[in-house]
Each structure stands twice: as structure tokens, then as C-alpha cells.
Amino acid sequence: MKKQNYIQYGSKCNTQELELFISHTLQTNQKAELQGKPKTPLCVWGEHGIGKTQVIESFARKNGYQFAYIAPAQFEEMGDLLGMPKILSDQRAQNETTVFIPPEWVPKTEGPGILLIDDVNRADDRILRGIMQLLQNYELVSWQLPPQWHIILTANPDGGDYSVTPMDFAMITRMMHLTLIFDVKTWAIWAETHKIDERGINFVLTYPETVTGERTTPRTLVQFFENIASIQDLKKDLPLVKMLADACLDSNTVTSFMAFLNNDLAKLITPEEILNTTHFEKEIYQKLFALVEQQTKRVDILSVILTRLINYLTIHNQKFKASQLDNAKKFLKMDILPNDMRLIALRDLAITVNKHLSSIAADPELGQILLTGGVLR
Fold first, then answer.
1. Model confidence pLDDT, tens digit, residues 141-168
2. Are 259 and 161 within one domain?
3. What tens digit of pLDDT does each residue of 175-184 get?
């Protein structure tokens, strides 16, 4: 993607940091509401396909929030936001009163809940002005949000090639802001959790630079991976795989994926194979040695396999067998594994909530390797 002078606001963060920030701000807003103080909406900025909407919807579902969604770019007139007028007749008083009937999407039950206003700056300027009043008071002339409801918005960057309506600072300053960016490590954890095709995870970890493009985004990559999941041998059906890739991704990403397949990187050793082997030296170490120790050492391959192994261990909050933990230790003690990778892996294991993994991080032999920079096999 060409570099653009994008205008975004707030700190840059990954999805885990965004969820932590949302949790904190909603708790703060809840306390403010109980004290009769105004609440502050949150606006999440980010490029298309980065996962803004999905993260917010997932947060609501995991934390027990009701969820309402609107895309104001679809609103053609203020009635879509305010509701439609209705005339009520009072025959006794012999007069008529005009009232507004709120739109169907307006939340009606008490929260906690989240109203997501998606791609807010793709709305027409007239609609934006109406939304600004909603951000100020959590109500409009025709309706108000029930108690314990919170407002979160998403927005695409301004100042680049996005077709957006600029928001002035009167509106900007009514919100708190954060910018979501792609983080390959966080994405890999998400992908393992959601059972994305492991060949796709290997590809993204091998070529993280291909994720950001005009057509290649985390969203379109997942679309592609879902479409190839049923193809057992990708090299055997290469013409179909390329057509599917061209349908979803940038040409540069397609070229990288074809190279990924031709180099047999889609068939990397899996975490399950590492943990469940009964002949680590022959089935794991020797295969990795042949794959990694080339004219130029393929540290990138080791990084992909190690990342997936650590993610597998930390995501599956279970008690692993002693033999599986022993295999994990053997992997971390391999002489072909750079010490900086080993250190990062042990750090991630040390902070995991799965206490059954503590024996790996506490292994004295691994500690000696880290202290001396040496290697034991």
C-alpha cells in the first residue's frame, strides 16, 4: 500500500490492548453515570479490514454486554437517526401532537450495553451533526439511551485515499480516541483460538509484511484461508489456490503465498507433532536441522514454529502430560534455536495464566542456557 498522510488519533494499540482500554473506559463511564456525571464515548480508528468492529463485538459478547449496531453511512436522512414523526390526536382536548417514533435499532432495555456506531465518518455531514448531539448527551430529541449503555464508534483514517467526512474538533473532543494497528503476534494468538487454517497462520508469521495492503488485510486473509481450508494438498491444486488468492488479495501477497507453497513452508512441523512425538531427535530435531541449517540459516522458520508452539501451550488452558512438557523443554534447548528467541518464549510462558506450564520456565537447564548464552542438547 502507498504511504498516506493518514490522520488518526490516540495511541496505537493491538487488539489485546484495545480490549483492556475498552474495559477500563466502560468501568469509568459506569462510575460517572452513578455519580450523575457525563459519560465519554470511545472512538477506535484504524484502516479497513483491521478488525475494529469484530474486536468490539467480541468484547461485548465475552463480557456480558448487550450489543446494538448501526452503520450511519446507510442513513439517507435524519429520520433514520431520529425516527419518524407521528401525529397523536387528543379528542377530549381537541388538539393534535406530533411525536417521534424511535428507529427500531434504538436499545430499549436497561444495560449494561454497547451501542456501536460503525464507520462513523463515512456518514453524510448532516448525519454526523446529529450524532454529535448523541455523543454529548447520550440522547436525541426523540429518544435516549437506557441506563448503563455506552457508545463506541469506529472510524477510518482521514487525510488519505478513504472516502470519509472530516470531523471537526467540536466533535473530536467529545470522544476518547485509540488507533488499532495490526500486530502479528496478537493476530496469531487470535487465529489459533479461532481455529484458522494452520497453513495460513504459518504464512502470516513468515510474511507479516504482506498483511497491510490495499486489498490484503487481516479480514481478506481470513476470507482466503477459509476458502482453502478444505483443500488438503495446496500444491496439487495450485491453479485453484491461485485463483482464490487473486480473488481476495493483492498481487504481492499472492506472489508471496505461491513462494511459500513452492518452498514447502505450508508443511512446517505443528505444535501437536512437537508435543506428542515419542522420538524427538529423529522426528523433530533432525527435520528442523535439515530445514533450518541452509547456506543462509532460516531463523524465520524457527520463529514461526516456536511462536505457534508457545501460542498452542498458552491458549489451551489445560494440564499437559509430563511427556508433552518434556518435549517442549527439548525444543527450547535445541542448539539451533537462537538465545533471543528462547528468552522471549520463556518470558511468555512465565506470565501465562496456565500454571501447569511453570515447570518449563523454571527448568534449571534452560536457566543456565540463558545465563551463559550456551547451548545444551
1. 889 999 999 999 999 988 767 788 889 8
2. no
3. 999 999 999 9
Residue 377 lies in a domain: no
Kindly state whether residues 207 and 145 are assigned to the same domain: no
Tally the domains of the chain. 2
In a domain? residue 192:
yes
CB atoms within 10 A of CB 309: 22
Residue 300 has pLDDT above 90, yes or no: no
Task: Give residues with Cβ within 8 angstroms of 48, minimum separation 6.
Answer: 156, 162, 217, 219
Are 151 and 134 a contacting pair, CB within 8 Å? yes
Which helix or strand (DSSP H or E) is residue 314 part of? helix 299-315
CA–CA distance, 302 with 83 (Å, rounded to integer): 58
Q: Which residues pair with 116 in a beta bridge?
A: 69, 152
Does some domain include residue 3?
no
Helix or strand (DSSP H, E) at 87? strand 84-90
Burial string for 241-279 (b: 16+ CB within 10 Å, else e) reads: bbebbeebbbeebbebbbebbeeebbebbebeebbebee
Please tell me the distance from the alpha carbon of residue 338 to that of residue 343, in angstroms, as a whole number. 9
Q: What is the pLDDT of residue 141?
A: 86
Q: What is the pLDDT of residue 373?
A: 55
Q: Tell whether 81 and 171 lie within a shared domain.
A: yes
**Number of other CB atoms surrounding residue 70 within 10 Å:** 20
Of 274, 278, 291, 287, the closest CA to residue 329 belongs to 274
How confident is the prediction for the chain on average, in pLDDT? 88
Judged by DSSP in three states, 281 sits in helix
Residue 1 lies in a domain: no
Pairing of strands 66-70, 42-45: unpaired
345-368: average pLDDT: 80
